[in-house]
Amino acid sequence: MSRPMQWKVVMGYRGRRVEKYVETFCAGVFSVSAVSLRSALMRATARQRETQKRRRMRSNRCSILFLRLLLLLLLVAWSPPSRWRGRGWGATAVSVNWGTSSSSSHPLPPTVVVPGLLQANRVARVKLPDADPSVLAALAGSGIAVAIGVPNEMLRSLSSSKSAAVSWVHDNVTRYVSSTGGGSVRIEFIAVGDEAFLLSYGQTFQPHVVGAATNIQRALTAANLANTVKVIVPCSSDVYQSESNLPSKGHFRPDLNKTMIELLSFLDKHGSPFVVDINPFLTFQQKKNLSLDFVLFQTNSHPLSDGPNKYRNHFDMSIDTLVSALSKVGYAEMDIIVGKIGWPTDGAMNATPAVAQIFMQGLVDRLQSKAGTPLRPKRPPRETYIFSLLDEDQRSIKTGNYERHWGIFTFDGQAKYNVDLGQGSKALASAHDVDYLAQKWCVVNNNKDISNVSSSASEACSAADCSALSPGGSCSGIGWPGNVSYAFNSYFQLRDQSADSCDFGGLGLITTVDPSVDDCRYSIALRTSFSTSIRQRLVARWSMMVQGGTVFAFLLAFVWC
Q1: Rounded to 5 degrees, what angle do the CA atoms 430, 534, 495 make?
Q2: How far is residue 371 from each of residues 26, 365, 367, 375, 508, measured CA to CA in Å?
Q3: pLDDT tens-digit readout, 97-147
Q4: Which H or E element spans position 21?
Q5: Residue 43 or 262, more confident
Q6: Tens digit of each residue's pLDDT (9 = 90 or more) over 454-495
Q7: What is the 3-state secondary structure (H, E, C) of 292-357?
Q8: Could you tell me which of 358, 274, 350, 280 has the C-alpha nearest to residue 317?
Q9: Is 223 exposed, middle or buried, given 0-12, 13-18 or 19+ CB atoms closer than 10 A?
Q10: Fold of the CATH domain 91-404
Q11: What are the residue boundaries of the structural domains of the chain, listed by start?
């Protein structure tokens, strides 16, 4: 044994008896003098005491650090719940659809929407069209229940690949519900597809819906989330029909019979509800014999008789037509959720804030009465998601220009009308601290020859939102050249007020005087754009990986100590 190893052995033992034994052993075997050995032992003991002293000092520093962090956690836990989690919403609180950045050129930031609109108005549940990282990051710790949508374009790949479904669930569900730093996201539904059975879609998505739902369900089961996160499949109301318009004669579309049986069997097996999207405005437009009063829950509407049952509004009639369709295929007791229902406020006749207010209050009153329907008395839909939270200027207008005006709030978070949505007040809370671009607009230059300006206006409207100029719209009566100025300004704001976006061959003019007229509002865009929203998504994805400064500090302290 070498001398370094000898000293190491001696330093590793404690107690006078062991020390004496080692001294005798080493002196006899290695001919080391007792004096030299004692000297070495004293030096080793001194070094050991110094090491122990440093460890005690370091331990004290760690103890102080942990106590401070523990105090911080206690302060967080005892903070007012309105800041850190949901506010204990009751069963009558409202649920809404929130369209995200893909359908808005300048979306209101999620950090404004969640506290300023959702929590301030006691929104209990929100349904998203996709798993937007910036939105989910803002919802973390809010206590708001979330339904995440799977876009139709993903159905084919999710149906054909189990691994794709596993990856999707991991990236968009597991990592959010298991997050502890800034609080987890309360995900309760995965909505597979968006009205994928719509008649106008034909066979584009229909063959892939049940397969995608099945693979998502398997992925949730593998992630131990199947008991808390349910798979749903939102269906448009055209999946069922009644040729006589009587709810008792309701049945599913013949071309969907096989697929619908497969879907209902899947939903029933996993305890999931049937989700239907109801569009009373579109129904009113298409059915000329349907009165506006009947759609708006007015008590003076002429009732529809169906045997012993009488229907006084379109909502009850639509729900019971679905109930009849479910009953005919053996699922009479399946729970129903209304995934979308609302009324637009612009872009068409009868699409105004005043009419929307009447409809929305009638709907809320009907739901809060818990009266149910003639075929399901005292059993209203389990949840009803209002469509929509905000206006979206990039939504498709194939079915009508009103499609961009479903919001209870304008694109910048301002309430369009007052309605009691279950929060105990008829005054909706609007968003605060909204960041707008500069106070300037683009209008037509009346000092130029504008006889051929219409082509420039058409070009502007092909890219920007001019739906308010539609017949019946809020700006339909401003005339020429006001409508041209509206088109110019819409394009100008879409392009973040860049100077060249107000050129139009020299016919445009930038002004600081608001050209708005009566109810026709010439908007100013928010200081966010589509490119900004992409950056927000990247930042949100990174923040979900490292969020939660308190917990991160604990981990850092643990490693350092």
Answers
A1: 75
A2: 95, 10, 8, 11, 57
A3: 999 777 999 999 999 999 999 999 999 999 999 999 999 999 999 999 999
A4: helix 16-30
A5: 262
A6: 999 999 999 999 999 999 999 999 999 999 999 999 999 999
A7: HHHHCCCCCCCCEEECCEEECCHHHHHHHHHHHHHHHCCCCCCCEEEEEECCCCCCCCCCCHHHHH
A8: 280
A9: middle
A10: TIM Barrel (3.20.20)
A11: 3-77, 91-404, 441-525
Burial pattern 408-419, b for ≥16 Cβ within 10 A else e, equals bbbbbbebbbeb
What does DSSP say about strands 336-341 and 251-252: parallel, antiparallel, or unpaired?
unpaired
Active-site residue, 195 included: yes
- Which carries the bigger pLDDT value, residue 82 or residue 438? 438
Residue ranges of alpha helices (H) inside 383-467 are 454-463
User: Quick one: the chain helix, strand, coil %, rounded to 5?
Assistant: 50, 10, 40
Which residue's structure tokens are 């999620």?
110
More confident residue, 18 or 104: 104
Cβ burial 27-59 (10 Å sphere, 16+ → b, else e): eeeeebeeeebeebbeeeeeeeeeeeeeeeeee
Phi, psi of 160 (to 5 degrees): -90, -15
Q: Tokens standing for 157?
A: 């790949």
| Each residue's pLDDT tens digit, 422-454 | 667 778 999 999 999 999 999 999 999 999 999
| Predicted local distance difference test score (pLDDT) of residue 102 | 76
What pLDDT does residue 46 have?
66
Q: Residue 44: pLDDT band by 50, 70, 90 thresholds?
A: low
Angle at 548 between CA 543 and CA 550, to 5 degrees: 150
Round to whole Å and give the CA distance between 456 and 443: 12
Catalytic-role residue among 19, 23, 188, 195: 195
